[in-house]
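Field: sequence (string)
Field: structure_tokens (string)

Example rows 1 and 2, in order.
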Amino acid sequence: MNDTPNMTDTSEDASASSPSDEKIAQASKVLGAIHEQMRGAVIGQDAIISQVLIGLVAGGHVLIEGVPGLGKTLLVKALAKAFDGHFSRIQFTPDLMPSDITGHTLFDAKSGEFRTRQGPVFTNLLLADEVNRAPAKTQSALLEVMQETQVTIEGHHYPLSMPFMVLATQNPIEQEGTYPLPEAQLDRFLLKIRIDYPTVADEAAMVRGVTAMSVADKLDVDKVMTVVKPATIIALHRVAAAMLVEDSVLEYAVRLTRATRDFPLLAAGAGPRGAISLVRAARAYALLAGRGFVTPDDVKEVSLAVMRHRVRASPEMEIEGRDVDYVLSELFSQVEAPRV
């Protein structure tokens, strides 16, 4: 796609002013091109693709929850190819060690020196598959990477290449042999996305695409074209960071977050990072829509994905079979949105 604008050389300083209409239009076109390439490989998951792009633009990490076989790995591979990013995948297991993620030092007998071997975390997109199957020590190693965007090996700090994004998956059904993610690590994810089964039409198109002239059982990313470079994603970060957020909209995000702490149907509410994440995700959502400002509707649209992993439903709701999404929807409908 040769007409996709290159934003690398024309990015604005986020601290200088809000991005121009031209800059917003360029960014929206880039994101539209990435989305179009991804949907050619990931059939029937347009909403999921959009949410992953929100995480990418906001510079956040994403937790994806869904049963096996819904294309989570394909989703990440397609995103990596669309912006020419490096991709790594780690299958989390109970015997996975922190050094299996970060890397380690080893002694080279030929040179008589210790050498550092970098782990799979040195990448742009890291797929942490079934992240809740690793023990706490290994999850803590991933937490440092997510929080600090650096790796510590034998006391030395190694910064990661940007952009860097962790997309972790977990199976909501099978819980045997898993280690629940600690709240501190859950809070590091900008979004928690729930991926569901495709529609009948989309599933038929998927089966047709997989089985046509092939004996394989999966789609591939061969049809996905590279439309931008990693430097363009960094430019998108700057554009999103400079977007205008009115005080009333920011206060609305704060009120939504604070409301989770006093709602009787919730056993635990969200911390201040919840409000920060709402604003970050809402800016990215607005940018995808081609707007240079954030509306209360933008905040509300991303609220479930931002909040569902930061709160916990009360035991009464769990007994009644009401999940966190139901409780949050009830709560957010009671918080009045500002008129802007």
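Row 2 begins here:
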Amino acid sequence: MRDSENIRAVEAAGANWMGFIFWPKSSRFVSQCPSYLPTKAKRVGVFVDQNVDEVAQKVSDYALDFVQLHGQESPEYIQNLRNLCSTGNEKPFAVIKAINVCCCADVNTYKAYQGLVDYFLFDTKAEMVGGNGTKFDWSVLEAYDGNTPFLLSGGIGPDDVKRLHTWFSSGCGSAATRCIGIDLNSRFESAPAIKDVNLLQTFIDSLTSYHHS
């Protein structure tokens, strides 16, 4: 997200968390602070192998609730980031580590970060980092046996309500019980960083109806 009016509309549609991409190579890069930032939805800053000082500055400037690390950041990097931010006056933030997935072996890379991060995000492995609009086979998440909650990502679109409901209902080992959210991005866009609010609202309403039925 980066357009103020679109941010307002998406927040009103019921988004719980909202992403701001601070990686300059992304078509969704936030180059300047929008005039409106969400007050109800939590703020997620997305970074890719960036200097910890730069990340810490964005945490402060945007009052981020979450830092999402979408590159090859090491466990040591994450510890250094936490140490740096704990010495200042920044409010506490949670760390989300993205795990790019194609097969079970990819899922198991989470183990290096267990206990260091607050959430994982399982996304589709591809040449481009994030926002590819393509899915991975969710059944590989049967390999996930960690206790850290995670977000499901990777090309989830308006036509996936029934598939998501089936996945949550049938379970996927212990994985479905650890999934606390769904990442929605490229397949709800009318342009990079601009969400189609009608599509998003319909999806949220439909998924909620399935959940309560």
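free_text_note (row 2): Residues 36 and 81 are 27 Å apart (CA to CA).
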